[in-house]
Amino acid sequence: MSSYSHNSTFSEPWGIHWFRRDLRVAGNPGLRFNWQKTKGRTLGIFCFDSTFLSRPDFSHNRFQFFLETLDSLKKELQQQGGDLLVVDSLPLKAFSQLLAHFDQNQIPRPQWISWNRDYEPFAKERDQKISDFFRKQNLSFETFRDHLLFEPHEVLKTDRPGDFYQIYSPFARKWLQQLATPEGQSRLKSQDKNHSYYSKLKKKKLDKGFQIQWKTLTSQPHFPFQDSLQYFLDQNKKHVTIPIPQAGSHIAFQKLQSFKNHLESYSEQRDFPAIAGTSQLSIYLKNGSLTSAQIIQELNLGRLNWGSQSHAFIYLKEIIWREFYYSILFHRPDVEHNSFLSQYSQLKWENNKSHFEKWKQGETGFPIVDAGMRQLLTTGWMHNRIRMIVASFLVKDLLIDWRWGENHFMKYLLDGDLAPNNGGWQWAASTGCDPQPYFRIFNPWLQSAKFDPQGEYIKKYIPELREIPSRFLHDPDLLQGHYIQPLVDHKTQKNRAILLFKSTPSHPKV
Ligand SMILES: Cc1cc2nc3c(=O)[nH]c(=O)nc-3n(C[C@H](O)[C@H](O)[C@H](O)COP(=O)(O)OP(=O)(O)OC[C@H]3O[C@@H](n4cnc5c(N)ncnc54)[C@H](O)[C@@H]3O)c2cc1C
């Protein structure tokens, strides 16, 4: 057995916080718990599963943003006297190798392991395996609610215990009732405590004696892992195709602060893609640089005395949509691959590949659709109104399977997130929970006239239309000869889409 020269560093209890989608220090319940238990002697770990790189919806751009968020987190932790190790290994393998190394080198095992819960099907399975492993190893671990204000098992029907809501409005009502309870309010208030705890730590920088870094361990012979963060950053950078926004929780908070000044105009502006009227916080929510609770607390949305039409309430309802889709994914994990409404699982999509390519490239001949698709390709983000328009167009005008679109979005969206992406696509395709009814089909020309009347958004992303009078952009007859010929005729396709839905054998007969 080899001796270990830094054993004294680990002579007092220490802990590991396993980061996943909670990439921040402030208001991180699992990390905070670990700090409290170990008096700040906590190391962070992130386990990267390389098989993820070969997923069909893998995005180098999103990965870069994720890596830069990890980098920012590592620096933040180091400033607090801790550290983050990014390992290129599945968590189960990583933890078992680490424990074996500690044992072989007479390094005391971590007394506490913590993580914040996740609700995606693959995460649930992974976490179950890890929990079983730690139990077998007799290691203490604790898990925490973090990225949702209310977890899926907390917002259930009261009249039918255990049953989950499939419609947004009653879900939102129940969610708001939970928010009004002392427990709901304390979840918001605990955000304050977390912040002040963080600033206290920041001031003290923790005692020198508390400082432990992975460097001490990783520099030992036979340590099973190298920190892979820089390697991934260097390798991935070569494949990035768009400017990557600044990452990290400090930036997320700055963005939240600046949105605070715009909240008052949210409900008027949020549907107009030419205006930066929405918070654009989705990319930070995805990685946990920020959580719903932090947003609600910071914007004072939890005060419960807003009118139903207030900006604050309208914004809060969007946050609830996110939690709703998480609840759906949690209770119906099959939606990851299939229609929520089983009667529409057998729809006979036309799936014209050449149309799909044109849609992806923003060359359909429908300016509002093309502008959206080009915004996605060049920035990695798309305005919500436009997401609805392009999704509806793919499914109901081009009669292409929503899963193709969902996959394309995941490849390009920096905020690509399974629950809201799947929810948004199934909503547009009328196959989801509480969806757009199958016969209510967006007319892209009318949508464009209504939400981008001056064509500012369209002209921003389609330079070849900059000299064209705005009113031409919303009318196929006026536009003829000035732009790509539309791939299809909207009216014809609308009728075909309705027939497609009606012709499925299990379509409800009315
Ligand atoms: C087809 C389609 C695909 C989508 N894919 C994703 C995705 O991969 N990731 C993602 O985060 N959102 C997705 N959305 C939801 C929504 O478009 C984005 O959350 C929103 O555009 C992000 O911009 P924002 O932060 O400025 O939103 P804001 O208007 O400022 O809203 C604040 C937050 O509320 C949540 N939110 C807002 N609208 C919705 C919604 N309709 N559904 C669920 N949550 C919502 C988001 O977390 C958002 O950050 C999708 C919507 C559709 C129609």
CATH architecture identity of the domain at 342-502: Orthogonal Bundle
Which structural class matches the secondary elements?
mainly alpha
- Looking at CATH, which topology of the domain at 342-502 would you report? DNA Cyclobutane Dipyrimidine Photolyase, subunit A, domain 3
Rg (C-alpha, Å)? 25 Å
Bound molecules: flavin-adenine dinucleotide
> How do the strands of the widest beta sheet line up side by side?
3-2-1-4-5
What is the general shape? Answer: globular
Assembly type of the chains comes to single chain
- State which percent range the strand residues make up: under 5%
**Order of SSEs:** EHEHEHEHEHHHHHHHHHHHHHHHHHH
Name given to the CATH homologous superfamily of the domain at 342-502: DNA Cyclobutane Dipyrimidine Photolyase, subunit A, domain 3
Largest sheet: 5 strands, parallel
* Spans of at least 5 consecutive residues with low confidence: none
Overall pLDDT metric: 92
Helices and strands in order:
Blueprint: E1 15-18, H1 29-38, E2 42-47, H2 60-79, E3 83-87, H3 91-104, E4 112-116, H4 121-136, E5 141-144, H5 168-180, H6 182-204, H7 214-218, H8 229-237, H9 249-260, H10 266-269, H11 282-287, H12 292-298, H13 311-331, H14 353-361, H15 367-379, H16 384-397, H17 402-412, H18 418-428, H19 444-451, H20 456-461, H21 476-479, H22 490-502
Parallel strand pairs: 1-2, 1-4, 2-3, 4-5
The structure holds flavin-adenine dinucleotide (FAD).
